[in-house]
Design goal:
Blueprint: H1 3-29, H2 32-45, H3 49-53, H4 57-61, H5 68-88, H6 90-99, H7 108-114, H8 126-136, E1 144-147, E2 153-154, E3 158-165, E4 170-176, H9 180-201, H10 204-209, H11 212-226, H12 229-243, E5 255-258, E6 262-266, E7 270-272, H13 283-302, E8 305-307, E9 315-318, E10 324-326, E11 332-334, H14 337-351, H15 355-365, H16 374-386, H17 399-412, H18 421-438, H19 444-449, H20 452-463, H21 470-495, H22 509-540, E12 546-547, E13 550-551, H23 552-580
Helix pairs in contact: 2-5, 5-6, 5-7, 9-11, 13-18, 14-15, 14-20, 15-16, 16-17, 17-18, 22-23
Length: about 575
């Protein structure tokens, strides 16, 4: 090897060591204590500290009847919350994107502000990117002819670069930021801790329907998927296989290489759906693209999958193939197919003005708790569905909003919301928005109707699938085989007059705790009052004495007055406990 080449290799190795040491120092600097101080500092700077400390803050946020001044105040809170999330980095930006879908948790004024969260940050030095590619990707930088050092995209989690492989294909190279996983893990642990504290402050009815810790865990598991680019590559291959050759105007980018921190995939030269020239397609071609995208996503939904970022900026129109190409498969997830089927069933019933049947399907989506008035819930759903009977995608009552209203009404009636439903609703709403951009002349609602046959085929296929019903069949066989023996046992008990039933009543944990607190305080009030009254009566029969200059009548009177006040105070505490845990 020539001296110049040896020197170049030594310089490269020295540079790599310098970058590695710097990354290790930055990771070591991310500690739980430092991040907690940073988070508190940012929240305080933006004037949001009272939202955490004030136990009545949630009461105020969930108040449905607000004046114009109160709505403006909520918008200012949302704006400050958005700025704080952007300053705190990726974990909070992703949390904000999830909260956007939860109008049942936060008022619309705040979620509209959070929709403007910017997930664009200044790019890090290209030396860090080179180090990650070199150390994480098999073959390192040698598999590329060139990599453009200027990123074509820079977000809080990753940066994307344009490159060319030695095999000749142009590629998009997605690289995770080197410290993002450590930062994410640290922030999530703090968010979980605070969510646990906030959960204890929720009213009992709200706490029964809204599990904040479960919500954070669900968000955490979904976000961690975005920090594993191998998982994203597998998702892309699954969608590519699912799409196959059945959709003429749709394709998924090819994956060339993938590791946990680096994803090399096909580069798509094109426009986003919001920017493509209208005259690039005829009306018929735009309609076909819309149909293919809609049917592709509906099929994906019916299989329990959702792509929560299926908005116009993440679907490209390829200049070469003229096909629509979905990209960025990071924010994906799964939901129970039975819930998905129920959603599509109430959409079909709504279009036919069958509000009663649609309400029954909606009841299959949400999960009532002991605090839910099911009659009231069903009536509210029935009234709501009537607004959507003849609606279209440009109307105020579009289907994306319909699914979100299902969630909101369910929460207001203390129902549990299935995991993933809010993100599923966001994905469904995004596909409707995409359809509006591609072909506004055709109603997305009619496009969904065109997939009714496929939807019903999926419903029937899953309902009568022998694998899905294996447990049911097993139980039927078991019951048929044991009926004679069970009947004989019942008759024996009846013959010997030994037939009895045992019923156990079990209160919900929080209700039992509240009842226990109220009984304890009431008992304490009665005990203290009895003691003070007894002392007063005893002193009235005692010989004349003086304590601190007071005679026995004065001391007895003071005892009685103190006992009365203490009893009133303890009863007030009991009433306050009940009131503070009631729903606002």
């Amino acid at each position: 090897m020539a001296f110049a080449e040896v020197k170049k290799a030594e310089l490269l190795e020295s540079e790599m060591d310098r970058v590695r040491d710097k990354i290790q120092m930055e990771r070591a600097a991310i500690t739980k204590d430092k991040r907690q101080r940073k988070i508190v500092s940012v929240i305080t700077k933006h004037g949001l500290g009272y939202l955490i400390k004030d136990s009545n803050a949630f009461r105020y946020l969930r108040n449905a009847s607000r004046s114009h001044e109160e709505s403006e105040k909520l918008r200012r809170i949302g704006r400050r919350l958005r700025l704080a999330f952007e300053e705190l980095g990726p974990a909070f930006i992703k949390l904000g994107q999830v909260l956007v879908t939860r109008n049942d948790v936060l008022p619309e004024e705040i979620t509209l502000e959070l929709e403007q969260l910017l997930d664009k940050v200044p790019p890090i030095d290209f030396d860090f990117i080179k180090y990650i590619i070199e150390t994480d990707l098999h073959g390192g930088l040698s598999i590329f002819d060139w990599v453009d050092p200027e990123p074509i995209g820079s977000a809080s989690l990753a940066q994307v670069y344009r490159a060319k492989l030695r095999t000749g294909q142009e590629a998009a190279v997605k690289v995770l930021r080197p410290t993002v996983e450590k930062l994410f893990q640290t922030d999530i642990s703090i968010i979980k801790k605070w969510a646990g504290r906030l959960q204890k402050k929720l009213p009992v009815e709200v706490a029964a329907s809204l599990d904040l810790i479960e919500l954070v865990n669900d968000y955490y598991s979904g976000s961690m998927n975005e920090l594993n680019l191998e998982r994203e590559a597998r998702t892309m291959k699954e969608h590519e296989k699912a799409a196959g050759d059945r959709f003429e105007w749709l394709r998924v980018p090819e994956v060339y290489h993938a590791t946990q921190n680096v994803l090399v995939m096909e580069f798509i030269d094109g426009w986003t759906i919001k920017d493509f020239p209208v005259d690039f397609y005829t009306f018929e071609e735009r309609m076909m693209i819309m149909l293919d995208l809609a049917h592709y996503y509906i099929e994906s939904f019916m299989n329990g999958n959702y792509h929560a970022d299926a908005h116009g900026s993440n679907i490209l129109i390829c200049k070469k193939t003229r096909k629509a190409v979905p990209i960025d498969f990071g924010m994906v997830g799964k939901m129970d197919t039975m819930h998905t089927q129920a959603i599509f069933r109430f959409l079909m019933h709504t279009r036919l003005n069958q509000a009663e049947d649609a309400a029954e399907c909606a009841m299959d989506v949400v999960i009532p708790t002991i605090y839910t008035d099911t009659v009231k819930l069903r009536d509210q759903y029935r009234a709501m569905f009537l607004n959507y009977v003849n609606s279209n995608q440009a109307d105020k009552y579009n289907w994306g909003r319909l699914v979100l209203e299902i969630i909101n009404i369910g929460m207001m009636n203390y129902c549990k919301i299935p995991n993933g439903l809010a993100l599923w609703a966001k994905a469904f709403s995004a596909t409707e928005g995409t359809a509006r951009w591609i072909c506004p002349e055709v109603s997305y609602h009619h496009v969904v109707e065109s997939a009714d046959a496929a939807v019903m085929k999926g419903v029937v296929g899953r309902r009568f699938n022998y694998r899905a019903n294996a447990a049911w069949i097993t139980e039927i066989v078991k019951l048929a085989g044991t009926v004679p023996r069970r009947i004989n046992k019942v008759l024996e008990h009846l013959y010997y007059n030994d037939f009895r039933m045992t019923a156990h009543v079990k209160l919900e944990k929080q209700t039992a705790n509240i009842a226990s607190q109220m009984v304890n305080r009431l008992a304490l009030a009665m005990l203290v009052s009895a003691l003070l009254i007894a002392v007063g009566l005893m002193m009235s029969n005692m010989p004349e004495i003086k304590i601190w200059g007071l005679n026995k009548q004065s001391i007895a009177s003071i005892g009685l007055i103190a006992g009365g006040f203490l009893s009133i105070f303890l009863l007030w505490r009991i009433w306050r406990t009940r009131k503070s845990r009631s729903l606002f």
